[in-house]
Amino acid sequence: MPLKDLPPDAQPREKLLARGPAALADAELLAIVLRTGTAGRGVLQMAQELLAHFGGIAGLLHTDVQALRHFKGLGGNAKRAELAAVLELARRALAQQLRERAVLDSPRAMLDYLQLHLAAKGHEVFAVLFLDSQNRLLAMEELFRGTLTQTSVYPREVVLRALHHQAAAVVLAHNHPSGSVQPSRADEALTQTLKAALALVDVRVLDHVIVAPGAALSMSAQGLL
């Protein structure tokens, strides 16, 4: 049913203003962002199809914005730009939490932050969270991409970036495009290599997180650090 045919108090925007955002379903919230549908397809239907296609709100947030181009109705720039803005706001909100609180005090926020940045990428990316002496986020940098091994991730570069940020500790992170977050032997070996290199400049490795769409694994929590 087109939005204009719904009773005023059932239309998403009016419902949000009257009852608050928590009263709306995911598709209704997304419909407000999309604003309009396509010929023969109302915005609510489009929102429902978008959520189904990408696996719900979490899947949509973890989706590379360029992947949206192939979804009917998102081939133009305007709606994709609006969704990209929502994604970036989510990233920045999580980053603010990590800057204001110790990373280890908010492990869920840290995992969500890393998933938003890395999980949807179609290639492997190795990133580092640089932390201060209170384990608060100073910066995040994507340092390497491609197949990650001890020979493709350079400990010297990681050490130099840690010194640049005057970091007291780091969290290592990378994604598995395959969807599995189980660490490989190469992941374990790389972690130990970097841990030893960073220890020489008195920088602690607090964790190595592996992410994939909808999943994340902390190697520290698994006793692999």
UniProtKB/TrEMBL annotation:
<dbReference type="InterPro" id="IPR020891">
    <property type="entry name" value="UPF0758_CS"/>
</dbReference>
<keyword id="KW-0482">Metalloprotease</keyword>
<dbReference type="GO" id="GO:0006508">
    <property type="term" value="P:proteolysis"/>
</dbReference>
<dbReference type="GO" id="GO:0008237">
    <property type="term" value="F:metallopeptidase activity"/>
</dbReference>
<keyword id="KW-0645">Protease</keyword>
<keyword id="KW-0378">Hydrolase</keyword>
<feature type="domain" description="MPN">
    <location>
        <begin position="103"/>
        <end position="225"/>
    </location>
</feature>
<dbReference type="InterPro" id="IPR037518">
    <property type="entry name" value="MPN"/>
</dbReference>
<protein>
    <submittedName>
        <fullName>DNA replication and repair protein RadC</fullName>
    </submittedName>
</protein>
<dbReference type="GO" id="GO:0046872">
    <property type="term" value="F:metal ion binding"/>
</dbReference>
<dbReference type="InterPro" id="IPR025657">
    <property type="entry name" value="RadC_JAB"/>
</dbReference>
<dbReference type="InterPro" id="IPR046778">
    <property type="entry name" value="UPF0758_N"/>
</dbReference>
<keyword id="KW-0862">Zinc</keyword>
<dbReference type="InterPro" id="IPR001405">
    <property type="entry name" value="UPF0758"/>
</dbReference>
<keyword id="KW-0479">Metal-binding</keyword>
<dbReference type="Pfam" id="PF20582">
    <property type="entry name" value="UPF0758_N"/>
</dbReference>
<dbReference type="InterPro" id="IPR010994">
    <property type="entry name" value="RuvA_2-like"/>
</dbReference>
<dbReference type="Pfam" id="PF04002">
    <property type="entry name" value="RadC"/>
</dbReference>
<comment type="similarity">
    <text>Belongs to the UPF0758 family.</text>
</comment>
